[in-house]
Specification:
single chain; Aminopeptidase; 11 strands; 35% helix; 24% strand
Length: 274
């Protein structure tokens, strides 16, 4: 799917800002709201802010490459702070139509994703993404809808593993042949030079975009979570910018399951507080 870049927005982005690390105050997680927009409708100020956020948490990804990657996508989820409407996070999306063994399906590929640290733990990105998938699903309820995700860090992997019944790879069982075929077809086409078929990872050649130190470190205590331990085992070189190739299937009942899960978690929390 070809997307014509918004040349004006790309030209208007000025010299790269100096990014300084400073203490961040934890804010209320519910103070964010989301908006899904077409990439070609982004303003130059929004593009500028997106790159500023991205540069805070990732190394080795120059501005021109960021903009090129951005305008290859079709949509972007913007996360904004309610009071001042400042952009605090985003996730880019590429929507595709394809087929496997004669069966048509819709694919949603997640690109660059980042959230300002003071909002880490907010469910708003997951909710906004799930809402977007559900809207796509109800347009074609009988056509399969798959989420293609490459994960540099365990937090992104957990967003998928904790919320989608059908997802791969996973620690509980090996990836079946059908989903292997879907992933091989998609990732080998999109990452012709860097997709490693054996490890199911994107393995960059030379210096590559990678998370800054301490952004998503896998601490020893985290490995008690079998999903985090599995991610670490499956993508041991994530700090070098390698990414684990994943897939998940969206269903019409996902929003109901997610809502029930959040409700149960809230009730258990209140019970513990009592």
């Amino acid at each position: 799917m070809e997307v014509v870049p918004n040349q004006k927005a790309a030209r208007d982005v000025r010299a790269e800002p100096r990014v300084q690390s400073k203490p961040r105050k934890k804010l209320r997680r519910e103070s964010l709201f989301s908006q899904v927009v077409d990439v070609e409708d982004l303003t130059s100020l929004q593009v500028e802010r997106m790159f500023q956020l991205f540069a805070e948490y990732y190394d080795n990804h120059p501005r021109d490459q960021f903009i090129k990657d951005l305008f290859e996508k079709t949509k972007v989820i913007l996360l904004m702070e309610k009071k001042h409407k400042t952009l605090q996070g985003f996730s880019t999306i590429l929507e595709i139509e394809s087929e496997n063994d004669g069966v048509s399906y819709t694919g949603v590929y997640s690109g660059d994703t980042v959230l300002s640290e003071q909002y880490w733990g907010s469910p708003q990105l997951g909710i906004a993404f799930l809402q977007h998938l559900w809207k796509l699903k109800i347009k074609r309820p009988f056509q399969p809808l798959y989420w293609f995700l490459i994960s540099k860090g365990y937090k992104t992997y957990l967003l998928m593993a904790n919320n989608f019944d059908t997802h791969f790879p996973r620690y509980e069982k090996p990836t079946d042949l059908f989903h292997q075929q879907l992933m091989h077809e998609f990732y080998s086409q999109r990452f012709k030079e860097t997709f490693d078929h054996e490890s199911m990872r994107i393995v960059p050649k030379g210096l590559s975009c990678q998370l800054k130190p301490d952004v998503a470190c896998v601490k020893e205590k985290f490995l008690k979570n079998p999903r985090i331990a599995f991610f670490q085992q499956s993508n041991p070189n994530w700090q070098d910018g390698q990414e684990l190739c994943c897939i998940a299937k969206m269903t019409l009942f996902m929003p109901l399951k997610y809502s029930m899960k959040k409700l149960l978690k809230s009730l258990l929390k209140k019970k513990v507080e009592k």
